[in-house]
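Consider the following input, taken from an annotated entry for Glycosyltransferase family 4 protein (Micromonospora radicis).
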Amino acid sequence: MTLTVLMNAGPWLPVPPPGYGGIENVVATLVPELRRLGVRVVLASVGSSTLPCDERVGVFAEGQFGALQRPYNQVCGVAQAHLAGVVRQLHARDDIDLVHDHVEAVGLAMLTAMGPGAPPVLHTLHWDLGKHPELYGGLDGGARVRVNGVSAAQLARAPRALREHSVGHVHLATPLATEAHRRPPVVKGEHVLVLGRVNPGKGQDLAARLAHRVGFRLVLAGPVGPYHRPAELAAAGAEARQNPDVRFFHDEVAPYVDGDRVRWIGTVAGRDRDDLLATARATLFPLRWEEPGGTAVVESLALGTPVVALARGCLPELVEHGRTGLLTGDEAELGDLVLAADLLEPDECRREAAARFTPAVMARRYAALYERVRRSDAAVPALRAA
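Applying the prediction step yields:
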């Protein structure tokens, strides 16, 4: 392809992130494969990003994630400052064929407001589309601005205006899937893993109660608010409870964290994270929300670990019940399914990941959407002239 794409990853974390980072990990997975397809990528991120790309632009030298715990009136300008820098780039140059935006709400609003003279935009929706009803419900990007989901289930729940701007969905991918079918078997440990940011939607409190009731060992891995290590959270003052995720952890999860049956280990990254996933009996997703994308789900499958989950959001799209995982609509059944997961074959999980969730598969799908968005935008002047 002969195409230059401005990939807007936002101001919050570098790409790739040092540990947890949902959107930033998606971008880090996608960009190398796009470049292999011949796409020139201008990465809009922070200065500490290390992902190889053709050009990097941005406003902030370092990720601004830590600012998210501050009051709104202290943080509300961060994303806007980053997007203002992106808009300045788009005004100043004529070599950007398309903007692929990943910044929640602000990215879509500002890029839409640029009007018909700006490059076409594909805005990827990574989150709960029940939020921002005034923005999503009134979206009018014409033919220039299009959106895509990260699952069909996510788009099915979208407001009508978003669905009318949609060009489809692209499931998330993981580099772990590329060689998944060739990965040798790993000896499974005793632990069940919940991987992800600790918050009510992920249901770590439910998982912890199940571990004590049913009798399995549970590891909770992921940050609590801005705190990536137990020692960091322990040292935080009372003001840390202003963060809702910190309050949730202290009030609903910590009473079950005994260091034996249930452990919270904070953020894990790299080889440690992969080993923790690969040796788990199962990964548990006791979701209280309609999960849109499920990065941790495809990573689990790639490492040969079955998924046990409430059948919400994208989970039924990613997991085949009885082959690569066990799904239920009943919270009370989750504990029994965790014990039954030992009967599933890790090789089946790896084969599924290698067929469906590689970065190459995701990049080819996005390249096709880029062309679809550009054709749609190019057709507008002709239609208006007619």
